[in-house]
Write a structure and sequence with these properties.
- By secondary structure, this protein is of the alpha/beta class.
- It contains four helices and seven strands, in the order E-H-H-E-E-H-E-E-E-E-H.
- The chain has a seven-stranded mixed β-sheet.
- The radius of gyration is 15 Å and the shape is globular.
Length: 154
């Protein structure tokens, strides 16, 4: 289910983000680094892209990932943690090259097989039809971490 709240200028940025989400989900489902092509994701990323992830989650590393190489390393780490990610609902708001996306996402952890259904809000800047910067905010980072921990009870 998707609900759109956009101006006519924003439709392009939202289209870019939809394609990135589809490419990321396919990359993760195919096994990630060494098993899937990164080219479909890279096609929608600005060469100077920056991803600011919240530190402390099983896939965020240092928290900041830069350029195509950094994004590929992030997605390799992300796909090592998650077996699948399914976008269940999305809403978006924006003005020009900035879009805010609220996603309800279901992840399945590779190590445990456990699923977590959570909300993520992302503040995204698009430049020249490609994602330039992304800042995701996770509603329940504890639930995300727990789903990945083999010793955590369901």
């Amino acid at each position: 289910m998707s609900t759109a709240h956009t101006t006519s200028d924003q439709a392009g940025a939202w289209t870019v983000m939809q394609r990135i989400y589809e490419a990321e989900a396919a990359y993760v489902a195919a096994g990630g680094f060494g098993k899937a092509s990164y080219d479909d994701v890279a096609a929608y990323l600005d060469p100077e892209v920056t991803l600011h992830q919240a530190p402390g989650l099983p896939f965020t590393g240092s928290g900041t990932w830069r350029g195509h190489d950094g994004m590929e390393r992030f997605l390799a780490r992300f796909s090592a943690v998650w077996e699948s990610m399914e976008f269940l609902e999305q809403e978006h708001w924006g003005d020009g090259d900035t879009v805010v996306v609220r996603s309800r996402v279901r992840f399945r952890a590779r190590a445990t097989g456990r699923e977590v259904d959570t909300l993520i809000v992302q503040l995204i800047t698009v430049r020249d039809g490609r994602m330039f910067e992304c800042r995701p905010f996770y509603w329940d980072p504890g639930a995300i971490a727990d789903a990945c921990r083999p010793d955590t009870a369901v």
